[in-house]
Every structure is written in structure tokens, then in C-alpha cells.
Amino acid sequence: MPDDDLSISLLGPIRAERCAVNLYLGTPRQREVLAVLALRSGMVMSVAQIVDAIWIGRRPNSVENMVHTYIGRLRRVLEPPGRRPALARVLRSTRPGYTLDIPDGSVDITRFEWDIKLARAARAQADLPQALGLFQQALGRWSGPALQEATGPLAEAERIRLTELRQDVVEETTGVRLLLGDDENLISELRWMLAEQPMRERLWELLLVALGQTSRRAEALTAFEDARVTLADRLGVEPGHQLQDLHRRLLRSEPVAVRPWWDRRVSV
Fold first, then answer.
1. What is the tens place of the pLDDT at every residue in 124-160?
2. Of 69, 188, 212, 226, which cross-links 256 as Cys (Cβ 3.0–4.6 Å)?
3. Domains, the chain, ranges and CATH?
């Protein structure tokens, strides 16, 4: 059974599959050891680095032995049936620690980031349907909060990064849908998103554009006031330049359109 049949999911519960069969990964701590190695796949991780990535503050006296035990159990699960530990090729012992040696794309985070790069490239070439499909494929890779149940500092830092990147993708997907003329369907979705994240100015911008493009100028002006009050009350700031520019255009009854903020975004 080839090693590229193994896939590891971190965009939700920590899981692993071989040939579409779920593998039993043990306790939450043991799953987090796998997550740490998957986040650094191809790199040598010493036992001390694994411990620092997972445990904060006071640690069990035998924490290094625990890591070795977790590695041994994971190796028995991750290696193809019949392969002896001494011949391990997936989870290898490499001085001064361990390496998870898996093909590119075996971890769903990598595939998520590949989708985003391809989507942004398609959008730059004005292939909006292709960009939309790739953005939606990227979002479809999530099955819950990233690195669910993992509590260590590495997982927390990566969770913050991935959650922000996912929100960027949600907003970029919405922008592409607006460019494709899907205005009416987006308005209720944007209002729902703003109820969850009222400080995201880009969502307010998208709502104003969607309302403006559907001849709901009065509602768009009301939405700007809602944004201004929300930002002032919660953050003590005025709306940003792009939001204010949209407001001025609406007041002058000028056309409004999606601002290409993505042109200034750093690639994944």
C-alpha cells in the first residue's frame, strides 16, 4: 500500500485516513503530537521541540517518555500494515528526534493553501467562475475549528493564522460572487456574517456594494450609519477610507463596485 494513500486533516478535528478508512489516533494529546509533526512535515522535530509545542507551564515529570510512547503508537497506526517499526518510512526516527515524511498535499492545510493560490491566479486572469470554484473548494476543506482539541502554543498560533486566512477567503469569495452578479443572494448572507463579526470593515464594504448594485441606496446609507456607530462604539474609530468613499459615492448616486483590495494582498 503506497504511502501517498495517507491523508491528514487538521482543518477541524485532527484525523488521519488511509485509503479513505479512518485511522484510530488515540487520546487528544497523542493526536496533537501528530498535528505538530504534520505542521512541520519533512522537518526533524526533537522531543524537546515537540514538548514545547504542546505543553504550557508545568509539565508531567515523564513528559519526554510520554512523547516517545505517543510516537510509537502513532507509528503503528500510520505505517502500512506489515511494515516493521525498524523500516518505518512515514514517521521516521531522525537524529535528534522524529520526522513525519509524507508527500506534498497529504495534509489538508497544504491543499487549502494551494486552492487559494490557484483561485487568486484565476481571478487575476479574469477567470471568475474558475476562481469562485477554487475558493469554494478551499472553504469546503474545513469541517470545524482548525486543530480542534489541540491546546498547545503551536496549535493556537496556527489556529489564529488559519482562521484569519479562512475569513479572508470568505470575503474574497463574496467579492467574486458580486463581480459575477450574485447580488440579491448575498445581502442576507452578508447581514448574517456581520451579526457574527461586526468589526470586519470589508464585510460592511461588500454589503454597501451589494445594496448599491441592487438599487437599494437608502438601505446602503443606513448600513453605513450602522457601520459607523458600531466601529465608534466598539473600537473608538471612524470607518476606513474605502468605506467612506463608498458612502460618498452613494450620497452622489454614483455607481459602486467591489474594490480590488485583493490586488494588495500578500500571497499565501
1. 999 999 999 999 999 999 999 999 999 999 999 999 9
2. 212
3. 3-100 (1.10.10.10), 111-264 (1.25.40.10)
